[in-house]
Specification:
This protein is α/β, with parallel strands linked by helices and 445 residues long. The chain has helices spanning 4-15, 20-38, 41-46, 49-54, 102-118, 139-153, 172-186, 206-224, 241-252, 275-284, 292-295, 326-334, 350-358, 366-369, 371-386, 392-416, 423-441; strands at residues 58-67, 73-84, 90-96, 124-130, 162-165, 233-237, 256-257, 259-261, 265-268, 300-303, 314-317, 339-341, 362-364. Helix 1 runs antiparallel to helix 2 and helix 8 (206-224) packs across helix 9 (241-252). It is globular and about 65 Å long. Bound molecules: NADPH dihydro-nicotinamide-adenine-dinucleotide phosphate. NADPH dihydro-nicotinamide-adenine-dinucleotide phosphate (NDP) binds at residues 166-169, 210, 238-243, 262-263, 318-320, 343-345, 370, 373.
Length: 445
């Protein structure tokens, strides 16, 4: 009989054609947990455990008609994939980007199951979004889109069922418009979304959480190898929420970050990225990185991609999926990189990941390294439930504690199964074991 894991990987590819990112995410997880599955293969096969794991509990796809400032009507597609609720209500962001399709949302939702489990908090996995592009739209157009999107989505979400959050293209502004529409239609002021503004139920430190959490795990990784990140040179890709706060925390910890990028080009600043300038350009003016030189005349701006060619000790991909390929990995290794930790979801291709690991680079996958965002979202849910707000310091300390524990969980899981230093295997097994236990306990549902 052929291997159960191989059969399911094959089945996923056959049943979900044209969804390469979903195949990639499933392959990575199933290959990592192979050792657990094969130790008890007959039972898992009889229970159709893997079939239940790779098929979302529910997928919602809907039409989003909205009116632009000229009065013309546009129709986008909205998605919410409620993947797995074994350990808690579905939780995961909403991505607004023209590249969004069902396969992308499924890959993100699948990853989210294990990431959420790794946080140690009671949250299941889900993801959603739309192929709407907020770039170049007026505030009113973004508002009308968000309202139209929520008019349909509000039928399927709630504080105890499914709690979406931000992601690419969905920041504080979009969450605000969506929350307003949810409240208007459902008549409920409840913690149905996270990433809210501070005046209506948001949590301090949520904005910073993914980037800060990334640096907390990097710090612990170095510490546990008897090293320190102070004075290290760091390259970062992206110039959005994750990138900005990763750069800020890296600098606070004494490292020097010399790059950032957006979808059209990248910046090299040998004196260290000016976070205040970056925030002004991206968070306030919503402009391109070409503006950066106005603030820092000694910096360089280059069109296209290129951050991975810059010599560094630590590389932090914080933009989007598959942005670091094997050629980039070769350059990083040639330049002596010590660690690559993923701020974005699945930014490193399968081949690049393998190349980095084979060459002794410490590699932490996104589902562990960027889990600080969703963990702090879960802390926002807790605060909403008890109708209290915690201080920045309280939330930040909890976040740090979660990331430090998370590092040791994935490190221990890797060691336990004979894969010491392989944090991909460690993260997938540690995330899976909790979900498996909960699924087994709840029967075939
Ligand atoms: P933002 O929209 O705030 O920023 C995304 C950044 O990446 C922007 O600089 C954007 O460029 C760039 N980018 C987006 N798509 C592409 C592309 N196709 N090619 C090149 N550059 C691109 O998103 P976030 O910072 O929130 O998210 C970044 C990553 O982190 C995503 O993978 C997301 O899923 C992941 N993540 C985010 C979390 C969060 O809390 N926000 C939590 C966990 C993971 P431009 O400015 O030109 O648009």
């Amino acid at each position: 009989m052929s291997s159960y894991v191989d059969e399911i990987i094959e089945q996923v590819i056959k049943q979900n054609p044209s969804e390469p990112e979903f195949h990639q995410a499933v392959r990575e997880v199933l290959e990592s947990i192979r050792v657990v599955i094969e130790a008890n293969e007959e039972k898992f096969r009889r229970d159709a455990l893997l079939e239940r794991l790779v098929n979302p509990e529910r997928q919602i796809k809907f039409r989003v008609p909205w009116i632009d400032d000229k009065g013309d009507v546009h129709v986008n597609t909205g998605y919410r994939v409620q993947f797995n609720s074994a350990i808690g209500p579905y939780k995961g962001g909403l991505r607004l980007h023209p590249s969004v399709n069902l396969g992308i949302i499924k890959f993100l939702g699948f990853e989210q199951i294990f990431k959420n489990s790794l946080t140690g908090l009671p949250i299941g996995g889900g993801k959603g979004g739309s192929d709407f592009d907020p770039k170049g739209k007026s505030d009113r157009e973004v508002m009308r889109f968000c309202q139209a999107f929520m008019t349909e989505l509000c039928k399927y979400i709630g504080a105890d069922t499914d709690v979406p959050a931000g992601d690419i293209g969905t920041g504080g502004r979009e969450i605000g418009y969506m929350f307003g529409q949810y409240k208007k239609i459902r008549g409920l002021f409840e913690g149905v979304l996270t990433g809210k503004g501070l005046t209506y139920g948001g949590s301090l430190a949520r904005t910073e959480a993914t980037g800060y959490g990334l640096l907390y795990i990097v710090e612990e990784l170095f510490k546990s190898h008897g090293a320190d990140i102070a004075d290290k040179t760091v390259v970062v890709s992206g110039a959005g929420n994750v990138a900005i706060y990763a750069i800020q925390k890296a600098q606070q910890l004494g490292a020097k970050v010399v790059t950032c990028s957006d979808s059209t080009g990248w910046v090299y600043d040998p004196e260290g990225i000016d976070v205040a300038a970056l925030k002004q350009i991206k968070e306030v003016d919503r402009a391109r990185l070409t503006e950066y030189k106005k603030y820092r005349p000694n910096s360089e701006y280059h069109e296209g991609r290129g951050v991975w060619a810059v010599k560094c000790d630590i590389a932090l991909p914080c933009a989007t999926q598959n942005e670091l390929d094997v050629e980039d990995a070769v350059l990083l290794v040639e330049n002596g990189v010590t660690a690559v930790c993923e701020g974005a979801n699945m930014p490193t291709t399968e081949k690049a990941t393998k190349y980095l690991q084979d060459n002794g680079v410490w590699f932490i996958p996104g589902k562990a390294a960027n889990a600080g965002g969703v963990a702090t979202s879960a802390l926002e849910m807790s605060q909403n439930s008890e109708r209290l707000s915690w201080t920045f310091e309280e939330v930040d300390a909890k976040l740090k504690n979660i990331m430090v524990n998370l590092y040791h969980n994935i490190d221990d899981a890797a060691k336990k199964y004979g894969f010491e230093g392989n944090y991909v295997v460690g993260a997938n097994i540690a995330g899976f074991e909790k979900v498996l236990d909960a699924m087994n306990a709840q029967g075939i549902v």
